[in-house]
Design goal:
18 helices, eight-stranded parallel β-sheet, alpha/beta, 11% strand
């Protein structure tokens, strides 16, 4: 946070690719080149954990906090690496290049990965690299691969509905199922090996171009995940391994009933007894592949809203304190330079600010939040920014700037825009103004979503919270990454002393 930097927010699924979804292949390398040519040194992405069509393909709903999404594996790189041939891709369907087609892409890539695995089994020279990966990641990989095999065997049923012996992970049952599903388990390990090999190569390429990768760590994990199945003691579950309490946020200005997220909440006493080993392992794993991470819902690391699992809304919950100081001190002893961005949006209390200030964690300043009531005192307005923060035009959960102006901004917000900038703004000028405002901020880091770089409207929105389906589908096309656009971004970046 000592240097003025800037970058772009673009998730891998949104990259150009000929295989129905963005991935770690040619489109990712071309985007890294675009960033470098545009004088950008940061690339922010969303969580890369496995997503599920049952959760609307949200990267924040996953079977694992450690594993990666097989859909992000690049077939073109598998050809280059010798795991498949171009002829093996001859059955690829015609994909839409402007949006992610999750179902078609999943079916296609599943078949590609089957071919790659069969080829791998005949490549003895690859065994050493693979075995080294398996050994280094055994602490999460063994249980995740078994979990995926079991889910397939039990027709996708959640783990608490499996036979009680394997639900409760009795050693005889674990041994039996590990043997019965040995081939499927090895294939899942191989798939993870492929992803992290491709990811490590891309990260190395980015770092060589002075580009740092910023990732995203959701605070909570999904109930139906290998994490909860393996570590039920770290979550508040009943005798049948069902959640006693779930996460959410209380009623506020935006919702009379609050938000009920449904994730199991942590048993922080048990985490403390283990010296926070699960969280340390999760953080170290992510920082092996990322240069910086955004901690989602940072407020929940100080106190979280706990709702009885039987409730239908978040109204009847309560605040539960977290041993935040001890937790972060423990993390910092293991990872002295903990590169965290705190997602501190919403109502943030003084105890949260105290923890952030104590450890120097920068917060977030989305400009779309800056023009509501009390313009002069608004914490997100430009003149109230501080150096140790990250300014955004908006986040993946917001509309694009143009979409916000056209559909979401009220009369008061538009009047405040006029008062603040001293000129009338319309749908054709608002995005450029807020991008420039972000770049001129005193904030050490400025991150602009790619949709705002392109000045796109609501059709390019990435996610609408509380809407289950139809999100996460926007795609960038290769012809949008022009030399003129790169030069424009570079000029703006240099004008405001960023790099």
């Amino acid at each position: 946070m000592k240097l003025r930097k800037s970058g772009i927010l673009l998730h891998f699924t949104s990259l150009p690719s000929q295989f129905g979804i963005g991935d770690l292949g040619r489109g990712a390398y071309d985007f890294a080149d675009f960033l470098a040519d545009s004088s950008q040194t940061l690339w922010q992405v969303l969580p890369f954990n496995p997503s599920s069509q049952a959760c609307g393909n949200s990267p924040y709903c996953s079977f694992s906090a450690f594993a990666a999404n097989p859909l992000l594996i690049a077939p073109d790189l598998l050809v280059k690496e010798g795991y498949i041939s171009w002829n093996d891709l001859g059955f690829a369907p015609v994909f839409d290049s402007t949006k992610v087609e999750y179902e078609k892409a999943a079916a296609f890539k599943s078949r590609v990965l089957e071919i790659a695995y069969e080829k791998f089994r005949q490549m003895p020279d690859e065994g050493c690299r693979y075995q080294n990966f398996v050994s280094a990641n055994a602490h999460w990989l063994e249980d995740y691969a078994l979990f995926i095999g079991l889910k397939e065997n039990f027709s996708g049923a959640p783990w608490n509905e499996w036979p009680v012996e394997i639900r409760d992970r009795t050693q005889p049952a674990v041994n039996e199922w590990t043997q019965r599903l040995a081939v499927r388990i090895e294939r899942e390990k191989f798939i993870q090996f492929l992803f992290f090999q491709q990811w490590s190569a891309l990260k190395s390429y980015c770092n060589q171009k002075q580009i740092q990768l910023i990732g995203d760590i959701p605070i909570y994990v999904s109930y139906d995940s290998s994490d909860v199945w393996k570590n039920p003691e770290y979550f508040k579950l009943d005798g049948d391994k069902k959640p006693l309490f779930v996460a959410g946020v209380p009623p506020d200005y935006f919702s009379e009933t609050g938000q009920l997220w449904g994730n199991p909440v942590y048993c922080w006493d048990k985490l403390r007894d283990s010296s926070y080993s699960w969280w340390i392992s999760r953080m170290e794993h992510n920082l092996k592949y990322l240069d910086m991470v955004r901690l989602d819902h940072f407020r929940g690391f100080v106190a979280y809203w706990e709702v009885p699992a039987c409730e239908k809304t978040a109204i009847n919950g309560k605040w539960v304190k977290v041993p935040a100081r001890e937790f972060f001190n423990t993390l910092l002893r293991r990872i002295p330079s903990l590169p965290i961005i705190a997602e501190d949006l919403g109502v943030i209390t003084s105890d949260v600010r105290e923890i952030m200030n104590m450890h120097g964690f920068p917060g977030m300043k989305p400009l779309l939040f800056a023009f509501g009531d009390d313009l002069a005192a608004n914490p997100y307005i430009l003149h109230n920014h501080v150096e140790n923060c990250v300014v955004y035009t908006g986040t993946h959960d917001n509309n694009t700037v143009k979409g916000w102006f056209e559909h979401d901004a009220g009369q008061r917000e538009k009047e405040n825009l006029l008062a603040y900038f001293g000129r009338e703004l319309d749908e054709n000028s608002i995005t450029g103004q807020l991008v420039r405002t972000a770049m001129m901020s005193v904030a050490s880091i400025a991150i602009i979503p790619m949709q705002d770089i392109l000045e796109l409207g609501a059709e390019a929105r990435m996610n609408t919270p509380s809407v289950t389906h139809g999100n996460w589908a926007w795609r960038l096309t290769a012809n949008q990454l022009t030399a003129d656009l790169s030069q424009k971004i570079s000029n703006l970046t240099r004008a405001y002393g960023r790099r």
